[in-house]
Each structure stands twice: as structure tokens, then as C-alpha cells.
Design goal:
CATH topology of the largest domain: Rossmann fold
CATH class of the largest domain: Alpha Beta
Helix content: 25-40%
Strand order of the largest sheet: 1-14-13-8-12-11-9-10
CATH superfamily of the largest domain: P-loop containing nucleotide triphosphate hydrolases
Strand content: 25-35%
Low-confidence stretches: 1-11
Number of domains: 2
CATH architecture of the largest domain: 3-Layer(aba) Sandwich
Mean pLDDT: 85
Number of helices: 10
Order of helices and strands: EHEEEHHEEEHEHEEHEHEHHEEH
Distance between the termini: 15 Å
């Protein structure tokens, strides 16, 4: 098991992309929050907050129901209908690599197959998650994973730690340089392709595809040499990853978990582990008070003996 760190380059204030959607007054208030922005939480009738360096900072903003409804329409570029499927899944993808989580009052319909979510009304809260710069992220990890190539890797951590940021960085690292690979990124939530990648990167994005279908297309139709996919978890996605590996295409994916043991308790990941799809399991964690991560790598052989 290897323990090391990776450094994140930081920004120093409100992401400028927010000016497209927020009012001048809101931007003026938020511009006073300095540091590396990770998330912005807006809540109707409750405190708003910005997460900076893992710390939640309250902001003196009052968000009304009318403000929230108008903001949601702007995020959907004027068409809630066009975004209805993603809204039912709990997010909006307005572009620029931003994913906005949503919550409100859900309504359902009873069907023979069970209850079906029809939509979400009265959206009460939004969570903006911001991608971080790629320049120095993931270099050491990419070099380490190249030594195991063509074995894949599974990156795990609890939500909000930085898995998506690392996956974007690895896409850049593996698709550039003297030994660049043809990299396909399955971006079901349209948050990985923010236009910030180098022009010479050998990258293909399958944006908006269901993960299982996107992985299959990347392996069989796009001649990918490496597939990256964020937040796999269900059985269909696991079977798609296995099928890609059986075609000789390694997959680097992420998943929510706190440990390798917790991962392997799930049927889909147990299937992939028994098939030796992932040569390494990479856990990442934030370091309190510092602007970097610690990660540890568990080789497949060592994961077989995890208690």
C-alpha cells in the first residue's frame, strides 16, 4: 500500500461563471468570499453558504422563492422541459463543467412496476459544485497507474472529497505527451468537459450518455485505449466495465466509499474484483488545514486480503 499526496492549484475567489446566472447584488456579496471555492449552497428562506478549503462559510444573502424559481429557469437556459430528466435525477448541468444539485418537493405516480418519479416542484435548495484547475493535479498518480497499465483503477472516497476533479486531471495526463492514449470520458452528468483541456489532448467525451451505454460505445465504436467514468455503482454499470475490460480496454472509474472493504461488500464491485478488472484501488482524503489531498493505493492482490 502506497501513501502519498497530490497538490491542488487554487483560485482566489468567486468563480466568474456565476455572473451568468446570479444577480449583480448576489455577485457583489459573494465576491467578498476569498479562497478556493468548492461549493455554493443557496437555500430558500435559510442561510446560504460557500465551502472554501473544506470550511463552510455563511453568506449574508436572503434567497426568496421568486429568486430561486428565476435562477432555476436561467440555469436551464429558459427551458425546464429540456432538463426534466436530469432534474428528476437531482441535478442540472448548465455547462462550463458545473453541476448544480437540486432538491425540492417530489411527486410520484403509482404504476404496476411501482412508484415512478414524475417531477420536482418548489425547488428549495441548489448546490453548485465547481471544477478545480488541472495543471498539477494527478501527475504522480498517473505515473503510478501507468506502471500497472493496462490494468484499470477504481478511485474511492466519500462525496465531496474530489473524485471528479482527480478524474478530470487523469483524463488530461493520460491523453497528452509522448505516450498519449486515446482516452474516452463517459460524462453522463455533463460536468467533466468544461473546455479547460489542452488542444492537443487525445480526448473524446460521451456527454449525457447513460454510463453503461457510454462505456460500451467507447470500447466498441470509438476504439478507446482507456475509458474514464465518474461514480459507477449499479449492476448494469459494473457489467459494462467488465465487458470493456474483456475487450482489452482498461477503465479508471470513481465510486462513493470510505474503504476498500466497503466497496467490495457491494455485488457489482465484488464481481469486478473477482474478475481482476482493477489493478489498484485508490482512496483519497482531504488534509485538514492544507490545500492538498492524501491518497493511498491498494493493489488488487492486497485487496484480496482486506478484512
Amino acid at each position: 500500500m502506497l501513501h502519498t499526496r497530490m497538490t491542488i492549484e487554487t483560485s482566489s475567489g468567486m468563480p466568474t461563471v456565476l455572473r451568468k446566472w446570479l444577480s449583480p447584488h448576489a455577485c457583489l456579496v459573494l465576491s467578498g468570499v476569498r479562497g478556493e471555492w468548492e461549493e455554493l449552497h443557496l437555500r430558500v428562506g435559510r442561510a446560504c453558504s460557500v465551502t472554501v478549503g473544506g470550511e463552510n462559510r455563511r453568506v449574508d444573502l436572503t434567497w426568496s422563492r421568486e429568486d430561486m424559481d428565476a435562477l432555476v429557469v436561467r440555469l436551464c437556459d429558459g427551458s425546464l422541459y429540456a432538463h426534466r430528466e436530469s432534474i428528476n435525477l437531482g441535478y442540472i448541468a448548465p455547462g462550463d463543467g458545473i453541476r448544480v444539485g437540486i432538491c425540492g418537493r417530489a411527486f410520484f405516480e403509482m404504476q404496476e412496476s411501482g412508484t415512478q418519479l414524475l417531477g420536482v416542484r418548489n425547488i428549495d435548495a441548489l448546490c453548485f459544485r465547481f471544477p478545480r484547475p488541472l495543471r498539477s493535479v494527478g501527475r504522480c498518480l498517473a505515473a503510478r497507474l501507468r506502471t500497472d497499465f493496462p490494468a484499470g483503477a477504481l478511485i474511492y472516497a466519500p462525496p465531496g472529497v474530489g473524485k471528479t476533479t482527480l478524474l478530470r486531471a487523469l483524463a488530461e495526463q493520460f491523453s497528452r505527451g509522448e505516450y498519449a492514449l486515446r482516452v474516452a470520458v463517459v460524462d453522463s452528468r455533463c460536468e467533466l468537459d468544461d473546455g479547460g483541456f489542452s488542444d492537443d489532448a487525445l480526448l473524446t467525451f460521451l456527454s449525457g450518455y447513460p454510463k453503461g451505454q457510454g462505456i460500451e460505445i467507447a470500447a466498441r465504436s470509438m476504439s478507446a485505449q482507456l475509458i474514464l467514468c465518474d461514480e459507477i455503482g449499479n449492476a448494469d454499470e459494473a457489467r459494462a466495465v467488465l465487458a470493456a475490460a474483456n475487450c482489452g480496454v482498461p477503465v479508471i472509474a470513481t465510486a462513493h466509499a470510505r474503504s476498500v472493504k466497503q466497496l467490495l461488500c457491494r455485488p457489482g464491485f465484488d464481481l469486478l474484483h473477482r474478475a481482476a478488472v482493477f489493478g489498484s484501488y485508490v482512496g483519497i482524503a482531504r488534509i485538514a488545514g492544507e490545500r492538498d489531498y492524501r491518497y493511498h493505493i491498494t493493489a488488487w492482490e492486497d485487496a484480496c486480503h482486506v478484512d
